[in-house]
TrEMBL record, chains A, B:
Span of domain Cyclic nucleotide-binding: 32-110
InterPro entries in UniProt: cNMP-bd_dom (IPR000595), cNMP-bd_dom_sf (IPR018490), RmlC-like_jellyroll (IPR014710)
Protein name per UniProt: Crp/Fnr family transcriptional regulator
A Pfam family annotated for this UniProt entry: cNMP_binding
The organism's place on the tree of life at top rank: Bacteria
Organism: Flavobacterium calami
Length: 193, 193
DNA sequence: TTTATTTATTAAACTAGTTTAATGTTTTGA
DNA sequence: TCAAAACATTAAACTAGTTTAATAAATAAA
């Protein structure tokens, strides 16, 4: 059950078999059917999750009712609201399954236990947070400098497997444009070819 | 010389006087005159810095020659290109002093020494990276959902002391708009009052 | 299988933000 | 202290992206 998780940890740091086992034993599996929520706005996020099956979206709803997608998570990705989780304040985010999904969950308490007792875990999460931060910095620069059209093209090139599983509405909410405009972009690209 | 730095560390984690002293001794002071660079595109970023005086901007130049500002750093802020620093690949960023500045620098080697020998330092940087990541997530959502006008207003409210030290050109590059449009926004706001 | 719901597309009017260029103001530096 | 450079503002034409609404196509539900 935790095979994918072990593989994922090994990608970031080298951890002894023993420590890996101990750490993984702190997770429990949760099944999340399509359209249900792992987290809702207003709740305090008390977990960190590792997706082993399915697809989630992590999004915000602004005061005008529009949704902005912070990121998607498929197999092998981690999900949490790091803001709510670390500060223990109510979340501004929703985490929703877009497909029937399976996720390995570790509670805040158990994660703190791991930090205190498995010295390498601190490094694991430092390294992972750094990597996601770098990715977000790049996305920030892209959003500041590139047109919606090139952001869309780059998104489809970078995550082809993800694009097939997403509606254009979801992709538009990630790119920060309307689905109507995304439709125009897609038409323009199709004509070019 | 490292008083500000010690104070900053204490804000994030509790570290013994001895460990604090050891860690701070790894930094050396650098003076960066206005308009000179701490890092240029193409260089590998081999340091992490803590600003004790002055003002920096961390920015990217896109292929059309436009500048996007990732963040500013004044006294008490950390600066590095975390991407280049961790992956040891050439940077896509410039770090430039906008005022005569002073910065405490720790080299990659010494930082690794600290990770290996001062167990709490791993936590320090995990916590700091988490906090900057949360801030960037919030900015990402704002950029996806808010108009330039409200982003400008919120920026001036959040960083009033910074706004006074920045030209409108710099603020516009941070907000992701042209300085001409920022001028329009400022006029509109002034008329309202 | 039929109906209801969600999704994608198109069009047309609109608005937020850009571009270019000109003008006055402030800052910098020799 | 004077000239040059950088900065802020304004105007006017333009373009990227939105809004609303209608229609067709695909999916889900009963």
């Amino acid at each position: 059950m935790t095979a994918l998780l072990k593989q994922n940890i090994a990608k970031h740091i080298s951890l002894s078999a023993n420590e890996t086992e101990q750490f993984c034993s702190l997770f429990e599996q949760k099944l999340i059917p399509k359209k249900s929520f792992l987290l809702r706005e207003g709740e305090i996020c008390k977990f960190e999750g590792f997706v082993t099956k399915g697809l989630f979206r992590v999004y915000h709803i602004d005061k005008n009712g529009f949704e902005q997608i912070l990121y998607f998570a498929i197999e092998n990705w981690w999900i949490t609201d790091i803001d709510s989780f670390t500060t223990e304040t109510p979340s501004h985010l929703f985490i929703e399954a877009l497909e029937d999904s399976e996720v390995l969950i570790i509670s805040k308490k158990d994660k703190e236990f791991a930090y205190a007792n498995l010295p390498q875990i601190e490094k694991l999460f430092r390294v992972m947070t750094q990597k996601t931060h770098v990715a977000l910095q790049r996305r920030m620069i892209d959003n500041l400098s590139k047109t919606a059209e090139s952001r869309y093209i780059e998104f489809t090139e970078k995550y082809p497997q993800l694009v097939q599983r997403l509606s254009n509405i979801q992709i538009a909410a990630y790119l920060g444009i309307t689905n109507v405009f995304l439709s125009n972009i897609r038409k323009k690209i199709a004509v070019k070819k």
